[in-house]
Structure prediction request, 679 residues.
Amino acid sequence: MDARRNWQDLPDAEGRFGPYGGRFVAETLMPLVLDLERAYRAAQADPAFAATMADFWTHYVGRPSPLYFAERLTEHFGGAKIYFKRDELNHTGAHKINNCLGQVLLAQRMGKTRIIAETGAGQHGVATATVCARFGLPCVVFMGATDIERQKPNVFRMKLLGAEVRPVTSGAATLKDAMNEALRDWVTNVSETFYCIGTAAGPHPYPEMVRDFQSVIGREAREQVLEREGRLPDAVMACIGGGSNAIGLFHPFIADEGVKLIGVEAAGRGIDERFEHSAAISGGRPGVLHGNRTYLLQNADGQILEGHSISAGLDYPGVGPEHAYLADIGRAHYLSATDDEALAAFQLCARLEGILPALEPSHALARLGDVARDIGKGGLIIMNLCGRGDKDVFTVAEALGAKL
Amino acid sequence: MTARLDQKFAALRRNGRAALVAYIMASDPDDETCFNILRGLPAAGADVIELGFPFTDPMADGPSIQKAALRALKAGGSLQKTLDLARRFRETNADTPLILMGYANPIESMGYESFARAMHAAGADGAIVVDLPPEEDAPLRAAFAQHDLSIIRLATPTTDDNRLTKVLDGASGFLYYVSVAGVTGAQAAAATAVRAAVQRLKRATDLPVAVGFGVREPEAARAIATTADAVVVGSAFVDEINPEDAKGSTDRVLRKVRLLSEAVRSARALEGTPA
Prediction:
């Protein structure tokens, strides 16, 4: 339990969250990640950096996002009172822009002239392309060819924003392969390029930095719920792919021992030995990939497995290292929801609340009823509705057998 | 064991020539073809063998070695199979150093201590683990120290003098200079830039300096062999492998090794200035 006392000080100087995290990168990239860390520390200490962020959050992104009482879902489940943190109302339709704004402002401070990013669902790609357009920086987005096929609207959106979308055909041509390709680009273009990682994973300082930028979600939610309800919630919930929206919601509540932190992973077609899921914590084991040690989907030889989820944004075989640590020490709890459960939750939310959620938070929605009933009437839950579902209408239509 | 590497480089120094370090991927395109290539490498002119162990996500490798890894995995390749191939090679050859090269996760999965023990038993001499920089390789270092195995570290064009001290601390066998910022098999570095870099590294260490990444043709190998202690070639060899034609693959790889070896061996004679 000693480790729990200082969890707010994590990661340590080596970028570790307990045994997780670190900087597992090729030597060529080591000076770059060390340089990035120095630049990030300088930005953290500079009030002007925070002020610029705040200004853009208010006037460009549209923060604070509302805390919305989901009255009809609350009635439907018959348990704890449910609030949605409405990060799907952000400019570009998801929480991703919180982080992109921070990283691109940092890139500018560092004098970098070219931004690269990886994307799965395309939300991080769109957010990066958006911020790059705003600041006049060239942007290259690596995206798996499979994902390009299932996320066409976002691909076109990125192109409209002036980004170059580079299809990645290696492996299963999804998010992990896009990340490999982005790392290969970075190792080749070391001096002018800034790699804008979309989730709270990768080599230190990315997990910490992305968490810090996304923590605006939890800080706002905490303030808003105290104002609305005069007390802290019993639980906060979010979906987990890499886990950036979840860690952003969780982190400002970590020291509040009475607040349960609940993450929901993608169980795909079920968590079993077929590995047709993307639930790294529930169905994986620790290993090293993409610069950090964390839970991974892998075989007995340490080869990474592709996994599966109906949601491109959750279709990643790893998870951010801080989640791995929070799971081990028992501070956060990780549940899962299958493709079918997420689809059902997507439709339920649409009909009862008039909100089309993205398939990613639909996984959290799918466990919301269980958690609400478990906590019971008089209880209070905040769920992060981290993205809107417009991008998913084609996928949902296909899954439901509807012709558009 | 470290002695085999030290003895090899000492002998080469006496002969006044650079080494050819030949990289191939274990189990590519299958175990038996790979073993035939391995067995033929010393006679073809490979002074040191770098045996890659396959990984699904080779982030620092270009298309050639990515494809080699996928072929190997498809053929059932693994870290264990790699160790088996190393052991079989060592039964046929007592003094050609053999080092393993790959990524951390298969080793994490096996366990650092088990890996070191298995390497020692197989007669392997050291390892390069691409995504274990000095900050992260303490468990590997501890395990290797107990079994007399070398940790071969990488220096790159982005490695400044401060960083170099860190890279050299705990390094043994030789120092691997990644001559271009980029992935394996991409563009070769300019000879003058390599010369300057090798001279800088040699001021900082007594370890032999090997130069690799992007060396595909005899001319490039020859240029590097005039200044460096070793030239590493990989992508050019694995590109000769065709899974449809095992026998032909073996012949083509070994022919290419002979070609590169001749270039490396003749480099300083042509230059007329033993380094």
Q: What stands out?
A: The longest strand of chain A covers residues 260-268. The two ends of chain A are 54 Å apart (CA to CA). Residues 62-93+215-399 of chain A form a domain with the Rossmann fold fold (CATH 3.40.50.1100). The interface with chain B takes residues 14, 22-32, 170-171, 176-177, 180, 183-184, 187-190, 286-291, 293, 296, 298, 300-304 of chain A (CB under 8 Å).
